[in-house]
Design a protein that fits this description.
The protein is an alpha/beta fold. Helices cover 52% and strands 7% of the residues.
């Protein structure tokens, strides 16, 4: 157990407020901000959202360097006296990069499930969210909502209605902007092996095919990933459905996977491929596979315009 002391949050009871003036009552209801050492702050357990060193992060680091942390980090205090981030993993990382020793923080008294729900809500405001991030955050929040539905002290519904099963997924979908069906699709992605989930994050495998592949056994997924690497191709929805069917019948093996992957896809077009190391050093860090394609196309268009200008300049001489 840590020797750290619990912070007095300075909250006054309703009885105490009876003896305050209006100004005192207003100040009592304001969030209290504390400068907490970064060494005493831990990441949220199994935090599903990545802290990517991308352009957005570069901007945040520069903002912290010039103006400090504008929005305090939200923490909950643990039983051992340390703190756990509920919202603000990127802000903490920016503080570490800048070299700050403390960060302004708001400390909330939250149960574990309440912290999970708030953590997911705050991170879903990001401009870019990967499928894997949605998958694990939806799963964590749905499980927390269902646990709340089993306890009378955690329900936020004045009529006492509890979350249960499909109802929880529908409520989660409304909050997060996805349909109930889409919520379940994202949660299915948590059954993918890391390599296939990475391909889904990169946009090389679509959500619907990925959902079908999530029903394959782990060893079947491993065999598929090896075939994808060898053939430099990813399965379509139709191919993924076929693999799932063969798997359910106990007939899916390496040869069957290869046979399915070699089938011609509808509207299949010629593709260009390059070794990743030839392009990676020329590309911005942190961009997805789909963004890489757009970046390369724009670069080629720019180069073509340059060649056209050079040719027109030579003709005018």
């Amino acid at each position: 157990m840590s020797g750290l002391k619990k912070i007095d949050l300075g909250l006054k009871t309703a009885y105490d407020e009876l003896f305050m003036d209006d100004k005192g009552r207003a100040e009592n209801r304001l969030p209290k901000i504390y400068n907490i050492p970064l060494t005493e702050i831990d990441d949220f357990p199994d935090h599903p959202f990545q802290v990517r060193m991308d352009e957005d992060m570069d901007q945040l680091v520069e903002s912290v360097r010039t103006r400090g942390v504008i929005t305090p980090i939200t923490l909950r205090q643990k039983e051992d006296g340390r703190y756990e981030i509920v919202s603000g993993h990127r802000r903490k990382k920016a503080c570490e990069i800048v070299g700050l020793e403390t960060a302004p923080c708001e400390i909330k008294e939250l149960t574990k499930d309440e912290a999970i729900i708030l953590m997911v809500e705050s991170n879903l405001q990001r401009s870019v969210i990967l499928p894997s991030e949605k998958a694990f955050s939806y799963k964590m929040r749905l499980e927390a909502m269902n646990r709340q539905g089993q306890r009378t002290d955690l329900t936020s519904d004045p009529l006492g209605r509890k979350y249960a099963g499909e109802e929880s997924a529908a409520i989660l979908g409304k909050v997060c902007g996805d349909s109930q069906t889409q919520v379940h699709r994202y949660i299915r992605l948590t059954e993918l092996i890391p390599g296939l989930l990475d391909l889904t994050d990169e946009g090389r495998i679509g959500i619907r095919p990925a959902v079908e592949l999530s029903y394959l056994k782990k060893e079947e997924q491993d065999a598929l990933l090896e075939t994808i690497s060898y053939e430099d191709a990813t399965p379509s929805l139709a191919q993924s459905i076929k693999m799932r069917k063969f798997s359910s019948e106990g007939k899916l093996n390496e040869d069957v996977i290869l046979s399915i992957m070699c089938e011609a896809k509808p509207n299949q077009r010629e593709k260009f491929s390059f070794p990743a190391d030839r392009l990676r050093r020329l590309l911005p860090s942190g961009i997805t596979m789909k963004q890489t394609e757009e970046y390369v196309v724009k670069a080629l268009e720019f180069y073509q315009h340059y060649l056209d200008r050079q040719r027109d300049s030579g003709r005018s001489r």
